[in-house]
Design a protein that fits this description.
alpha/beta, eight-stranded mixed beta sheet, three-stranded parallel beta sheet, 6 helices, binds 1-O-pyrophosphono-5-O-phosphono-alpha-D-ribofuranose, binds uracil
């Protein structure tokens, strides 16, 4: 069974409230989405494997820890997932970044796959898929299925706001993929937008509406 982790850290919740506010403009929205992603990244990487390394401090030699081997690849779902990448890279600057393009057909709400470019060494990496919104779950389900074709070592999915409908659909489709979110909202509306949500994440990040 896949797990759903809700990050209820006060800093994340405080920033999320400002993010949701319709008066928050594009500049602040971008900054907040990156800050929230960075805080979530800290929690989501808690289980990274460590190995012993020899270090000489100014005082003496010691055995210390460093992250073991090739590790992470971040894969934002275009467009809105791009808004989380810089925050993630602030914490893990050596991570590689793949891209997967999906948009929801406005009539059917079904995801349309239009781009996929992943790091060549993806089978040696743990992937964190990024998208601020998990609504019906269609985009995330298809994106993760596409990424699985390239056999990464593991996959996690990180979003900022999830709807119960999306969580149910995603965990049924990918029971092996852990889901991280900052909030589990009430429901979807008739247009498959999350309530209360934050509106259209892509439009708010890129100022397209
Ligand atoms: C949004 C969002 C997710 C998707 C979530 O993208 O960023 O990718 O909708 O909805 P779902 O769970 O019902 O699939 P959108 O299709 O608006 O594209 P955009 O990022 O290019 O704006
Ligand atoms: N995509 C968004 O950007 N917002 C929603 O509420 C649902 C899908």
């Amino acid at each position: 069974m896949s797990k759903v982790m809700i990050f209820d850290h006060p800093l994340i919740q405080h920033k999320l409230s400002i993010l949701r506010d319709k008066r928050t403009g594009t500049k602040q929205f971008r900054e907040l989405i990156n800050e929230i992603a960075m805080l979530m990244c800290y929690e989501a990487t808690r289980d990274l494997p460590l190995e012993d390394v020899k270090v000489e401090t100014p005082m003496e030699k010691m055995t210390a820890k460093k992250i073991s081997g090739r590790t992470l690849a971040f894969v934002p779902i275009l467009r809105a997932g791009l808004g989380m990448v810089d925050g993630m890279l602030n914490l893990v600057p050596t991570a590689k970044v793949g891209h997967i393009g999906m948009y929801r057909d406005p009539e059917t709400h079904q995801p349309v796959d239009y781009y996929c470019k992943l790091p060549a060494d993806i089978p040696e990496r743990d992937v964190i898929v990024l998208d601020p919104m998990l609504a019906t779950g269609g985009s995330a389900i298809d994106a993760v299925a596409r990424i699985k074709e390239f056999s990464p070592r593991s996959i996690k999915f990180m979003c900022i706001i999830a709807a119960p409908e999306g969580v149910d659909a995603f965990t049924a489709a990918h029971p092996d993929v852990e889901v991280f979110c900052a909030a589990l909202d009430r429901q979807l509306n008739d247009h498959a937008y999350i309530l209360p949500g934050l509106g259209d994440a892509g439009d708010r990040i890129f100022g397209t509406k």
